[in-house]
Design brief:
about 5% strand, three-stranded antiparallel sheet, mainly alpha
Length: about 280
């Protein structure tokens, strides 16, 4: 009897671990193919005869539900890669290594399409060139010296420097703090689960203001005021602000995430037709 109880405890612990791994995959923090579905099903089948109380059967059912969710994510991943004609570079490398030199050369010859172009000057082109040069004014008339104009100089005011973006109206750290507070407010108002879509936050009335907001957002992430959450399957990016400012700014960034802020993307997220 004690041996049966001990085996049931081991089974519950394994099912809890499986559920935690599945949740990590569902939250997009792990690759769905890191979970061996066949191995997990074998574990569920192994400990199923040990369950006697309703709580254990509920735990078993919850594990199966999470495994079904992981299988769905794996299917979506495969569908996304197949529709985008994605080929794993490691598979290509392995295939090329197995090919013989003659087969590689033959494949190269089939795919090689050299461009051949012949250029020559015709009598018509020569006549047009002569007509062009004859119509030009003499060099003395084309390269007339322009008398230098006197320009009065004066001191630039602080207001003029701010308007020309040479000086900022307030310190950068103060502007960053205000931008962080705005992010928290917008997230609480329009976000979900403590995060907001990246483009919903940075999109402004003008393209210049949108680029500036993207610039400030990059510093929020770099200095630890917020973090980016990327969902590659859905092709969506979220930004999640931290509740408290960092005690000490990070001196290096673990990963660089390039995001193109083009006029076409700005118009699309602004809801206007692109040219």
């Amino acid at each position: 009897m004690p041996l049966k109880r001990e085996r049931a405890d081991i089974g519950r612990e394994k099912l809890q671990r499986i559920i935690e791994m599945c949740r990590s995959v569902e939250e997009r923090s792990l690759d769905p193919f890191l979970i061996d579905v066949n191995d997990v099903i074998a574990t569920i089948r192994e400990f199923f005869p040990e369950w006697e109380i309703p709580e254990d059967l509920c735990l078993d059912a919850e594990t199966i539900r999470h495994i079904a969710s992981v299988i769905k994510l794996q299917s979506e991943w495969v569908k996304h890669r197949s529709t985008s004609l994605y080929t794993d570079p490691f598979l290509l490398e392995e295939k090329i290594r197995r090919l013989e030199k003659g087969e590689i050369v033959k494949s190269f010859l089939y795919a090689w399409h050299p461009v051949v172009e012949l250029e020559q000057i015709s009598l018509h082109s020569l006549a047009e060139a002569i007509k062009y040069w004859e119509s030009l004014l003499p060099l003395k008339e084309r390269w007339k010296e322009i008398a230098p104009q006197g320009i009065e100089t004066s001191k630039a005011t602080r207001k003029e420097l701010i308007e020309q973006k040479i000086l900022l109206d307030k310190a950068f750290s103060e502007e960053l703090e205000n931008f962080w507070r705005e992010l928290k407010g917008r997230t609480a108002e329009k976000g979900e689960d403590g995060k907001i879509r990246y483009w919903d936050f940075i999109t402004a009335e003008t393209y210049e203001e949108t680029a500036h907001r993207a610039f400030m957002t990059s510093f929020l992430v770099t200095y630890g005021y917020a973090t980016l959450e990327i969902h590659p399957l859905e092709e969506e990016i979220f930004i999640k602000p931290y509740e408290k400012p960092p005690a000490k700014p990070s001196k290096k960034q673990l990963m660089s995430v390039p995001i193109a802020i083009s006029i076409e993307e700005w118009l699309k997220h602004k809801g206007e037709p692109t040219k």
